[in-house]
Amino acid sequence: MNVLETAKQAEGYILDRRRYYHQHPELSGQEKNTSEQLVRDLEALGITEIHHMKNCYGLTAVIRGSKPGKLLGIRSDMDALPIREETGLPFASQNEGVMHACGHDSHMAILLGAAKILQAHRDELCGGVKLIFQPSEENASGAKWMAAEHAADDVDALLGAHVWGTLDAPLIDVSAGNRMAGADLFSIDVNGRSSHGGEPHLGMDAISIGCAIVNNLQQCVSRMSDPLHPEVLTIGEFAGGPQFNVISDHVWMQGTTRYFTRTPQIEGQMRRIIEQTAASFGAEATLNYEYKSPAVVNSDSLMNRVAHDTVVKLFGNEALGNLPPMMGGEDFAQLVPAGTPTFFAFIGSRNAEKGITHTNHQAQYTVDEDILVRGAAFEAQFALDYLANA
Length: 390
What we know:
The protein is an alpha/beta fold. It has ten helices and 16 strands. The protein has helices spanning 3-9, 11-23, 32-44, 104-120, 142-148, 206-217, 219-222, 265-280, 301-315, 370-389, and strands at 50-52, 59-64, 67-77, 126-134, 157-168, 172-173, 177-191, 195-196, 231-240, 246-247, 250-259, 284-293, 296-298, 320-321, 326-329, 342-350. The chain starts with a helix and ends with a helix.
């Protein structure tokens, strides 16, 4: 089978699916209609081994090959963002204030295209391919929800891909090693004592104490972490104070840590700094720390080799892209049990000649649609070649 030619023959279908899902975005945890439409699309391809999650809108479907072999999972996310679209596309979002600004519409279309190719050529497929449609990636919850239902426990390896607005089309990045950082979430409560703004000595200013905590926490990164293992600690939300002339008795903060090597001591370091900083002012502060997503690292030698060779086989060496590791998070690796081989690719969506220059999470973000066929061909060819060699 010539996978690329087969993918080109399916171009109309892939574009149609991308445009449909782009027009009908749904936020994280609300992907009911998206899930129902995916089932209709899969059944129309003759794929009927479909399993629905009970605690979320995720679903899986299996394509069985005619030859014995292992089971490869391929994952697409499904959710959109609370962004008002400004692309001017004729198939722009019909859901006001909600937009597929991260390319998950493209991911679904690419995986459906790969499924169409593989389903039509099951006689050449060793083992099987599990199609995994995951909700709630944007809030890093969907993979955990699906893992709780053992959605991908049976796969021998997992493949994922993401369209990326800073990588030029038609490049595909299949670099080995660190790709996207692990991401944890934390919140901090600071409890002081209120008083009149003109009598600060009678109160215990939670805002001032909170500011001191923010500054002191940076010591975790600058002085307590190994500089050869990068970490980022960000506080993105800070709320406190009922009125301009009142010393606030409470502050709430929320933030995230990012890393490639999870160091368990960072939670303890943060807790000590937070509690002791507050105590030095006579106040109390507490930390709630939640482990969210492990780092995305392409470390499996077979998957690394097959991914590289797949791009070269389909498009030549000139199609190989190179994105540096990113501190952005992705819950992809949380889908499978620890130790399961995984690989994550990036598909360039930027095309300055076509005026497509905005990147993910922007209101003007869109993709060069020529990449969709290439993405589907990549996923299908990877599945055939990996399973033939696994």
